[in-house]
Amino acid sequence: MRFLLVEDDRMIGDSLRAALRMEGHAVDWVRDAAAAEATLGSEVFDLVLLDLGLPQGDGLQVLRSLRARGNATPVIVLTARDGPGDRVAGLDAGADDYLVKPFELDELGARIRAVLRRQAGRAMPLLAHAGVTLDPATRQVQRDGQPVLLSAREYAVLELLMQRPGAVLSRAQIEDRLYGWGEEIESNAVSVYVHQLRKKLGAEFIRSMRGVGYFLDTAKGGAG
Amino acid sequence: MSSLRARLLLALLGLLAAAALLLGGLTYRNVRAQTEALFDYQLRQMALSLRDQGEVAPAQASALVDQQLDFVVQVWTSDGRAIYASRAHEALPQRAQLGFADVVVAGQVWRSFSVTLPSRVIQVSQPLAIRRQLAADAAWRAVWPLLLLAPFLAAAAWWLSALALRPLQRVAADVRRRDEQSLQPLPADGLPDEVAPLVAALNALLQRLGQSLDTQRAFVADAAHELRSPLTALKLQLQLLRRAGSEAERSAAAEALAAGIERAARLVEQLLALARSEPGAAAAPLQPLDLSELVREAVADTVPLALARGTQFELRADAPVRIDGDRAALGALVRNLADNAVRYAPPGARVEVLVAAPDGVPTLQVDDAGPGIPPAERERVFDRFYRRGQGDEPGTGLGLAIVRSVAQRHGADVELGDSPLGGLRVRLRFGGGGAAA
Predict the structure, then answer these.
(1) What is the ipTM of this complex?
(2) B85 beta partners
(3) What is the number of other CB atoms lying within 10 angstroms of the CB of residue B435?
(4) Hey, what CATH class is B4-139 in?
(5) B187 CB neighbour count, 10 Å cutoff
(6) What are the residue ranges spanned by the domains of chain B?
(7) Using one digit for the tens of pLDDT, what is the confidence trace for A186-218?
(8) Which of A12, A21, A139 to substitute to test the interface with B, most B CBs within 10 Å?
(9) Full-prediction pTM beyond 0.90?
(10) Per CATH, which fold does B287-436 belong to?
């Protein structure tokens, strides 16, 4: 998953980015409203973590103009403003969730998963396809009830594919979701991860469409 | 005696008593003087008319003598035989001095007038007590209406004072109805001129109190808000430390946590410094001190930071400069200025700190080669929690607020300008009280 973190405080930003990276997400970090507007105008993210008190502008304004452009990227507001009026204003401006600082990383993780679930139109916390289940909360993957060990990147690729079975994702799209700015992308990395996943989950689990990308075959069925 | 009404009443009654005494006394004296003259004249006239008439017929004599005025007429022959007495008065002397005389008889003073004829002596006498009695009666008649009036006057005064004091009671009731939250001004319409200044002063005090409360509330709200960021960072850093999988991750997380704690501690320290320097805080008294020495000591705390950043730090504070100051507060001021200069300038830049007393004005000047502050922002940077841009330096936004607050306590001007070094020049000039040594 590729996240945009908008946070002016250097220490908070550092820690959040490190924590989200540990979970296998790609995190881009901007520190003021203008940079946030510019980035959101030109790039696609799976989720935005937005601080409201920003230098040179207000986070709520960033959120409003994002929604005004018709951009439905899920946004979780992270802020020190904790009045009920602030929460209402934040949610009404188009936020999907509102988390008051200071918060627990575990709670942030749970809320991120919940928001992404809603975004994908699912209420069930487990992703399942063709005998493979993926639990975004525990990051555990099972094949026919047996746990499968995956690296963070492998997990990220699998999660992307399982979120929308049948949809074809290009290599570039997957890379884009896997790597933040400044992270070096190893060539062929995506094919390597897919290869590893096929070894662990079955050769037929991930299908490729030459020149287009990868997908999970819905014809083989599976609850999702 | 704390009641205004009782005081007024007592004063009024006292005045009444004094007036009655004075009036009575004066009347007594005047009437006494008049009766003296009048009765003496009467004594004399009576005696002379008796003399001129020759033999006194008893009926005539008794007509002369008013019983109430207690005249006593005695006539003697020249050889001393009493031939007439208006009434027997054995106590009166049988011989008399001629003309007016005061005669004491059995403890009573008599006034007498005597004339002699070749054949007899005529004496007319009257007890002096009669005259005093008359004067006292007159005095009493003058005084008693006053005494009769006293209770009515007292009652009127009691009622009038209640009427006059009613606005005060209204103000008191207004004040009593308030709780500690309602600081609206008291209504001042229709108050008498004597009470209006009190209410006006009270309202002014309420207003100042309200402003000070607002300032305090804003400060506490700001402080709570500002503490959130460092605490959030601490919490995240701690959680990262717990999640760290490798030794390298763990040591990086521990380092970040240490930096976070450092930052939170610094913010708390700065908040305390600011709270102590705010007006109204129980501040230490200003004492004579050497500004140069104080700056040398305070700047020593910044030296490690300067060394770490390769800053060329130059301190020129050689001659003693005497001012009256609060050592701890001034130390915080100097540390903030020196820290800012080092922190916001690029590594390896120059910082100059100068203490001098040009023209006898004690001056502290800090120059740096940092980015400076544009003139438009030079007033706002003194606001609490105002931070310029995003900067990588974890400032608390309180440094210059502390500087201004401490400077104000010392009657010093703070001036921000452009430094010849290319960055910011901060100059403090201590007005009054200080002199170069």
Answers:
(1) 0.70
(2) B74
(3) 13
(4) alpha beta
(5) 12
(6) 4-139, 198-277, 287-436
(7) 788 888 999 999 999 888 889 988 888 999 987
(8) A12
(9) no
(10) Heat Shock Protein 90 (3.30.565)
